[in-house]
């Protein structure tokens, strides 16, 4: 591999990790999220030009921020706002390189929020945007997801997502929306979008849509941190605690989700001694807080209750699948979606037999939103395998492998297809981790 190739891979990797913080810091400076994204992209181009010659800097994130900040200064000069802005940038520079979080916003009551990422989430979830536009824009800016990855999460087309993002940035600029955490009275109308975005970012880190890695831990960590902050700001909001509970419990399995070479390990085959008991305790405590606040459990608290069933089971065999099936049915009532119904098919299959689970999954075969969703044939393949219909199971696993864009997941599905050769030597094992 050439030095240029190494540098390009390094730039892409660093930018994927740092882009959200970079854009957040730049948005605070230039007060325009679209412009901030352009400046961040300019810094990436500069890195692609410079790093092959100079080598990768010791702190590449700080290098990108310094480069983008310098370009922002040049831009502000041209816009004749140098005096006020340069003074602000000078104060920020004194706080140390790569520390865009040094400045903070004030919210009602004088509380200080020292996190530009959280402000960027609230900005992107502003009421002037439609719900779908809010989520798409925030996934792009905060999650660092590409357009195709966001389209995959929404089960929609890339063109649709791209239009939403472009229009959202223009709408924010036209409305001159300030880069700040809103007053407490305004949080409620943005909360649903904020929680949705945080969880979608977590999901992309927990099971990457594409690429060579099964997980992207940095995204999980960012989402957990943001979720905990939101729950701290809204201590009486059950769904905020429900989301934290869900992410804590799911994150507790991280160490057990991959094997020695990075290959995926499915939920029922994981070594549960490797689950992080501290994260489980934190998750169960957050779930208890959500339940104590009363009322009907929302989608995140219900999903956390499902995750808790797995966390409380000392072995896979002790999993309370009938309760999980009931919880998925409840989830389908408050947040109906084909994906929830597919998960219910898995639970029904485990609780009441593969034939009943397959009947639920087969009802989704004509669902347009799942036409290119690899987990539908994956679930059907597993249920067919458990029924001894090896040839059909093999075809479903191969179809699922062709649909996924994650290399690790593709290899696992191809392995499961191979297990069905010669009458089915492999055992059925439900997907999920």
From TrEMBL:
Molecular function GO terms recorded: DNA binding; sigma factor activity
Where are the stretches annotated Disordered?
Answer: 412-433
Domain DUF6596: start-end pairs: 190-290
In what residue span(s) does the RNA polymerase sigma-70 region domain sit? Answer: 21-81
One of the GO biological process terms: DNA-templated transcription initiation
Domain RNA polymerase sigma factor 70 region 4 type span(s) in chain numbering? 122-172
* Top-level taxon of the source organism: Bacteria
| Segments of skewed composition (Gly residues) | 423-433
Q: Which UniProt keywords apply?
A: Sigma factor, Transcription, Transcription regulation
Entry-linked Pfam families: DUF6596, Sigma70_r2, Sigma70_r4_2
Q: Which family does this protein fall into?
A: Belongs to the sigma-70 factor family. ECF subfamily.
The protein in question is named RNA polymerase sigma factor
Q: Which organism is it from?
A: Streptomyces sioyaensis
């Amino acid at each position: 591999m050439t030095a240029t190739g190494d540098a390009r891979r390094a730039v892409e990797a660093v930018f994927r990790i740092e882009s959200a913080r970079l854009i957040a810091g730049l948005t605070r400076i230039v007060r325009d999220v679209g412009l901030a994204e352009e400046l961040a992209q300019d810094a990436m181009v500069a890195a692609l030009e410079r790093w092959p010659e100079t080598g990768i800097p010791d702190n590449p994130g700080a290098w990108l921020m310094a480069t983008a900040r310098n370009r922002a200064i040049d831009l502000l000069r041209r816009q004749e706002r140098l005096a006020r802005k340069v003074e602000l940038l000078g104060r920020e520079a004194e706080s140390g390189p790569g520390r865009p979080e040094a400045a903070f916003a004030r919210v009602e009551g004088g509380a200080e929020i020292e996190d530009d990422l959280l402000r960027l989430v609230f900005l992107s979830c502003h009421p002037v945007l439609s719900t779908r536009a809010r989520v798409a824009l925030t996934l792009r800016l905060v999650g660092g997801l590409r357009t195709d990855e966001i389209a995959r999460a929404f089960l929609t087309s890339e063109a649709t997502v791209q239009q939403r993002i472009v229009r959202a940035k223009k709408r924010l600029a036209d409305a001159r929306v300030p880069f700040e955490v809103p007053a407490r009275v305004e949080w409620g109308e943005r909360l649903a979008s904020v929680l949705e975005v945080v969880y979608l970012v977590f999901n992309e880190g927990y099971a990457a849509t594409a690429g060579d890695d099964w997980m992207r831990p940095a995204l999980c960590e960012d989402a957990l941190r943001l979720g905990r902050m939101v729950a701290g700001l809204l201590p009486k909001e059950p769904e905020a605690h429900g989301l934290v509970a869900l992410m804590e419990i799911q994150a507790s399995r991280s160490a057990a989700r991959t094997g020695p070479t990075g290959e995926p390990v499915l939920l029922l085959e994981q070594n549960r001694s490797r689950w992080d008991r501290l994260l489980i305790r934190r998750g169960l405590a957050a779930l208890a807080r959500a339940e104590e606040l009363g009322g009907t459990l929302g989608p995140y608290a219900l999903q956390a209750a499902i995750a808790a069933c797995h966390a409380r089971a000392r072995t896979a065999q002790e999993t309370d699948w009938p309760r999980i099936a009931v919880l998925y049915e409840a989830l389908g009532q408050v947040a109906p979606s084909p994906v929830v119904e597919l998960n219910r098919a898995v639970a029904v299959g485990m609780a009441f037999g593969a034939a009943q689970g397959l009947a639920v999954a087969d009802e989704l075969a004509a669902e347009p939103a799942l036409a290119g969703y690899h987990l539908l044939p994956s679930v059907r393949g597993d249920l067919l395998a458990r029924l001894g219909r090896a040839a059909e199971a093999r075809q479903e696993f191969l179809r699922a492998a062709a649909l996924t864009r994650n290399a690790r997941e593709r290899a696992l599905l191809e392995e499961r297809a191979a297990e069905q050769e010669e009458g089915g030597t492999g055992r059925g094992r439900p997907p999920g981790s």
